[in-house]
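Example complex used in Figure S2.
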Amino acid sequence: MIDEELKAILVCPACKGNLIFEEIRIICQACRKAYPIRDGIPVMLISEAQPWTPGA
Amino acid sequence: MSDAHREAILDQFTRQAVPFATAPSIRDEAALETVIAFSGCGPGDTVLDVACGPGILACAFAKVTRHVTGIDLTPAMLERARALQSETRLTNLTWRQGDVLPLPFTDGAFTLVVSRFAFHHLLDPGAVLGEMRRVCAPGGTVMVIDSAPAQEKADAFNAMEALRDPSHVRALPLVEHLALFAKAGLGEPRQTFYRLPSDLEGLLSRSFPNPGDADRIRETFQRSLADDGLDMAPHRVGGTIRLSYPVAVLAARR
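Predicted assembly (310 residues):
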């Protein structure tokens, strides 16, 4: 599977919203969370997400 | 998942990561082949391994399918999974750290959704099976592999397993597995069964029971030699007790 397909099937565990991939984190704009990427592995845990605000 | 149960899982599986990943019984090649053949998977399949642990099943599926995603709660397990991936030089695998409820994937994202030896750790296995169905594409396959003790021995089996592994919740007898499939809106699954062999001391060496409980486990196995009250088929071989877990392999069309 190519990277784009893999990104497209991953959603926010809190709201099932679409995600925006950055270098070290994954953003859910819908419910304003930033999920960390640790050692190259996305950490899709609500308890590990940081609050995110647009422009931050 | 409750916070306390999540802590228990993380604690047990962080400690178990290395011994678990290398246990001959968990790496049992014949059992892996059984599971893969029974799945009916092919080179076009995209697979999700739910609570993938050290990635043994995920890597086995990756050899014969298009792509496998493994998701697990425990970073130490995912580290082992990645190590196994690089040993096997497979490139069609992706790892995610996450919970199984809810699964962080779109509806119908995979054609084969599988979970092996995880359901007995779940507080709400029915809800997880529902999530597995949701992320499986119509016409795809949802598959559960887990211990399935005989119904009349399930309470004794589960009491012993909870002693051995404090993160154990409940291994379901077949009839309860089937009820979960029905409730999740999946048809009656195809079924096959095998015994997962182990030995008592090897098993204890890979387990992290609470202090004092190892001896209670040994006593329980001693007693079960007479009547197999645990459904673990214990028998003496030389100075050791050999045993085997009853395993059900269930596969339903989505």
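Chain B is about 40% helix and 25% strand. The interface with chain A takes residues 46, 66-67, 69, 71, 73, 75, 78-79, 82, 92, 94-99, 102-106, 109-110 of chain B (CB under 8 Å).
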